[in-house]
Amino acid sequence: MAVIAGRVVELIETAVDIIPLELSVDERAAIDPLVHGFVGAVFGVVRRWLAGPVREPSAEVLATLTTASVWFQLHGHALALGLELRVDQPIEELLAGIRPEAVE
Description:
Elements: H1 2-18, H2 25-51, H3 59-80, H4 91-96, H5 100-103
């Protein structure tokens, strides 16, 4: 879990460095624990589902609901920082759209 969370932290910190967002020191410091919390929550959902006597809802439904839950959190944080994300937007497109050479 820590390896996955660490990679996501690196990705988000890199994006924050590239995208012209104004984060406070506290907001920047919160990236690591928040991401670890998101990843831990996903692992917790799966572990709880696996431990149950009946695997309901289906794996597909649980994956869809868990994905939506994480998306709502990420999207909400992005909106609070003034960044509009699309659920179908590749990270490459997001980052390419803000490079200075892309704006010129």
